[in-house]
Each structure stands twice: as C-alpha cells, then as structure tokens.
Specification:
The chain has 567 residues and is mainly beta. It has 4 helices and 36 strands. The strands form 9 sheets. It has a 4-stranded antiparallel beta sheet, with no helix packed on it. Helix 2 crosses helix 3.
Length: 567
C-alpha cells in the first residue's frame, strides 16, 4: 500500500499519530488529543475503529477519516477490549462500594461499537480474567463466574444457555477455530495431586465428553497459546516459586494438545526456564526460547520435533511478522537489547540491531518494519520510540521531551493478506542513533588481564544448525533417543509375538486338568511358537534385534521345562 501505516502514540501529554515508513511525519487528518488523563488506546481487530479512554469518556474514531463515531460517557474504565469482529467494545473499571451503595454496581460493560449503545452490564470484581471470551464468529460468548464457565448464544446476554461446572476451573481459553467451538480449561490439583487441562467441544460439557485430558504437576498458572487456525494449542504451565531453587522464574513446562485428542509434553534439550513461546502465522510450527543463560531458541513442528536450532544467545522474546517469513529474537529486560532477524524460509540471519531499555516491540502490518519503545511505568527515564527496518537499519528515533512519559504505541490493524511478504533481500539506508553504544569488549577480571584468552570464559555457546547437525546432542536428547530405540525394539518384539498367534502350531501339549499346570503349559507353547516364527524370519534374511536372538538361544531350556511338566 502506498499510504503510510498509522502509528498512534499515547503519552502523558495525550494522544498523537504519525505515518509509518516512508512518511515518518505527523498523520494527516488526525486531531491530536491534548490530555494528561488518557488511560488506554486500542484498535479493533480489522483496524476500522480506534478507541481511547480520556478522563470520564471513551471515544470511538473512524480510522478511514479519523472522525468521531461515538462517545461513551460517563466512562470510568481502566481497561478495554473488542470482540473478535469488532462488533462490541468491552470496558472494565474497578469494583467499588459506598455507604449509599454497599453492594456495589456492575463494572463490566458491553457497548455496541457503531453507536456506543450500552448492551449489557455485569459485576466482575477481579481484574484477572475479566474479559468475556468470544468465538471467532461472535455467536458464542463465555464468562468465568467463580469456578464455572457460563455460556451465552446469539448475543443474548440475558439468558445463560448452559454452564461448565463441577470442575473448579481457574482459567480457560476458547479456540479461534471458526464454525466449531472448542475450549481448554485448567483445573488446579489438590496438594500432592496433578492439575488437569481438559479440551471440550461445545455443547458437550460432561466429564466423559472431554476430547483430551492432560495432567501435569507444578501448575499454579496456565498460559494458553492457540495457533491462528485454532486446531492446535500449547499450554505453558508454571509455578510462582521453584521449590528446588533452580530458577528465579519458578518451574515451567510446555504441553501440546490437538483437536484430535493428541497430547504430549515437550522435551527440551537444555534445562532451565521457558522465556517465550510463539506460534508461526503459518500454523505449522512454533518457536520456543528456553534454558539457563545463555538461553536457546528452537523451532518445532506439529509433532513437537525440532526442525531448526537457532542456537544460544542473549535473547528472551520472539516475534513473527504477520506474513511469517521473518522471525525476530530480542533480548530485553535484564538483557542488553540485542535484536536478531531471521529469514524463516532459508533459516539464515539477515539483520541485527541494538535497542537497549526496550519494554515494547511490535511488527508493522507490512511485515517489513517494527518499532521498539521505552515506556512508563516500566521505565520512567529515557522514554521514547524508534522505528526500524528488518535489516537492522534505524529509520526514526523519537525521544520524549522534558517531563513527558510514554505509555503506549500501536500500529493500525489491517485484515489478513492486506500486505504481501516483504523481500528478505531488501536493504535500506538508516540513520545513526543518538544513544551512546555500550562497549562490546568482554569484561576480563584483573587477575586474568595480560594473559592468554580463556576460551571457556568467553564461550558464545551453540551456533544455529539443523537438528542432527554438527552440534553434539544434549543429555536430554540422548536419553530421549534411548527411550525411542527401546520402544521400537519392544514394538518389533510384540509384532513378532502377534504374528506367531496366527502361525500353525508345531508344539503339542497334553492338558492335565490342573488349572495352574495347564496355564504354564499354554505359556510355554506360546513362547515356543513365537521362537519358531523368529527362526523363519531369520531364515528369510531378516535382521533380528538382540532380545529376539536371546529368545532363540533359550529355546532348549523352554523345551526341557515343557517335557518336565508333561511327565
């Protein structure tokens, strides 16, 4: 698109907007909001409406011409969200009681986006999980009430159609799968007992109707990560405290659940916390950053098998561009702000840059640019934002003026497939940053200076490679390989025994009428028949496993035991 993509900015001075590359100037037609009380800023999923909270009102703007579509007042909300199609605006304000109103008033409100008309109000005391969850077609609406999930249909908020009860649900998440309604809920376990993640398809809500049940220990909280098609989900389980003392971040685990009922736990090749998990917009793979410092990044397929190792480095966050042909790894928080961009088709690094003190990052809908920002209250100094090209070129640097705090930024949203994939070979000319660059020279303790370099001290870790490449497998990978080989050998053995059942029996036994003795005779006959089958396979040139060869060697002992029982 030739029109620059709008970027909206919320700060302690109000709300403003600029055009994205190549404009990078004030957005034409947008009226700057000068206020110190702007509390939230949000686009609808398709980007046709922008909502913001200012003082005691909520304003809805038409993003085609930035005219006011509706004003909701009074509105004391602190948080807002939209339904999947943008039909409704939902607001939440802190629940309060007064002497005149000791029971309090509803604090969760649902408005019609086009008109600002109030549709329904609920009482929602807790801020956590306050948002009602919608199906992608908006025909099903759900809320968590105490430990039950209640269901509404066809936008009728006055009638509860049914509810999921008796499971003591702590949290849940609806799949974005269109047409069918699936959801996963988390039931915490009692002391010493596992927690459960259960997959249901609405409206079958009985215990026996669960499509999948995944049990896991050490799960105080669960983050639900659906792919955009809604046919596969990842559950990131975590505890607030790691009782083993191994991690400041608590204990974590990653589990896979598919709509076909398949479940599995991911095995990581490096021990340590899980920092970030993100599905690719392609829906066929996902990326995980995990392990003690320096952490490791791995891309997995739908079978939870690694397809590419991005190596180890100073990164802890993952961002795919909307077109899924670029992957960004960033190291923020207690890390130095390194950013690396990867071509996900050829799996090669194509850019890097440094954005220290970054607290917010978002790809532009065109998939070729992204912004990094330092925002308040996370950081109250050096607030401002930068716009980058994926190759690492800095295009705009916008620090805040004196006494200004930056709160939030947001690109205007666009429908899927609006923009084509950016060409990964594209390079642009950037500008130099005004921020001082920290020295890249590694620190050397005084006792080691003026001596030969200690390679272990400056070990950069594992490099990017395909699984099974030059890098030596980890202990966990070797353990997993050993388990797979043992399972394969057992399956071959079982198959051989099954085949022997259908083979013509060559061993004759005479039953005695004694149940215990006859049982032993039948077992010996079964084993000897299986050995005969293995011998036939060996004669045909089939390579037998070690345990199968051992069975053949034990044939004489079995025959002797059979003869003694029949005496």
């Amino acid at each position: 698109m030739s029109v620059p993509i709008p970027l909206t900015i919320r700060s302690s001075f109000g709300i403003s907007a600029i055009g994205g590359p190549p404009s990078l100037k004030a957005l034409e037609g947008f009226q700057t909001v000068k206020s110190k009380t702007c509390r939230a800023l949000l686009f609808t999923p398709n980007g046709d409406i922008l909502a913001y909270l200012n003082d005691s009102q909520c304003v809805l703007l038409d993003t085609n011409n930035w005219s006011t579509k509706a004003v909701i007042q009074p509105c004391k909300a602190y948080q807002i969200t939209f339904s999947p199609k943008g039909t409704y605006l939902l607001t939440w304000e802190p629940f309060t009681v007064t002497k005149d109103n000791p029971n309090g008033s509803p604090n969760l409100h649902i408005y019609e986006t086009q008109t600002g008309k109030l549709i329904k109000s609920f009482e929602q005391r807790k801020q956590s999980n306050w948002q009602p969850q919608w199906s992608s077609d908006e025909k099903l609406v759900t809320r968590l009430v105490n430990t039950d999930i209640v269901f509404y249909e066809d936008l009728n908020f006055d009638k509860i159609v049914t509810r999921l009860k008796c499971f003591k649900v702590r949290s849940y998440c609806i799949s974005p799968n269109p047409g069918s309604y699936f959801f996963i809920c988390h039931t915490p376990g009692s002391p010493g007992q596992p927690s459960f993640g259960r997959l249901f398809k609405y409206p079958q809500l009985e215990s026996q109707d669960a499509i999948a049940n995944k049990s896991f220990f050490q799960a105080d909280m669960v983050d639900y990560i659906w792919n955009s098609k809604g046919n596969n989900a990842l559950l990131l389980t975590s505890t607030e405290v790691d009782k083993t003392g191994g991690s400041y971040y608590g204990k974590q685990g990653l589990h896979y659940i598919g709509l076909n009922g398949q479940t599995m736990m991911l095995t990581m090749s490096k021990e340590g916390p899980i920092y970030s998990v993100v599905w690719s917009p392609k829906n066929t793979e996902f990326c995980v950053i995990y392990g003690f410092m320096p952490p490791k990044a791995t891309v997995f397929n739908l079978k939870c098998e690694p397809v590419f190792e991005l190596g180890t480095g100073s990164f802890n966050t993952i961002y795919y561009n909307p077109q899924a042909n670029l992957l960004l790894l960033g190291g923020f928080g207690n890390l130095s702000g390194n950013i690396y961009t990867w071509d996900t088709v050829n799996w090669k690094q194509i850019g890097s840059c440094l954005a220290p003190d970054t607290t917010l990052l978002e790809w532009s809908p065109d998939g070729a640019h992204f912004f990094t920002a330092t925002t308040s209250p996370r950081l109250r100094v050096n607030n401002g934002f930068k716009i980058w090209h994926f190759s690492g070129a800095l295009l705009l640097e916008q620090p805040c003026v004196v006494n200004e705090e930056l709160y939030d930024l947001a690109w205007k949203k666009y429908p899927k497939y609006t923009f084509k994939e950016p060409k990964t070979s594209e390079k642009v000319q950037g500008i130099a940053s005004s921020q001082p660059i920290a020295s890249k020279q590694a620190y050397v303790p005084p006792s080691l200076r003026n001596r030969p370099t200690n390679s272990k001290l400056h070990n950069v870790g594992e490099k990017a490679h395909k699984p099974g490449g030059d890098s030596a497998p980890s202990k966990a990978a070797l353990k997993l390989k050993k388990k797979r080989e043992a399972k394969k050998a057992k399956k071959v053995d079982d198959d051989a025994e099954k085949d022997s059942v259908t083979a013509v029996s060559t061993v004759q036994i005479n039953l005695s009428g004694d149940p215990e003795k006859d049982k032993k005779l039948k077992n010996l006959k079964k084993k000897l028949d299986a050995i005969k089958k293995l011998k036939e396979q060996q004669a045909q040139g089939k390579l037998l496993e070690i345990n199968q060869l051992a069975k053949i060697k034990g044939e004489a002992d079995l025959i002797k035991e059979l003869q003694q029982l029949q005496v």
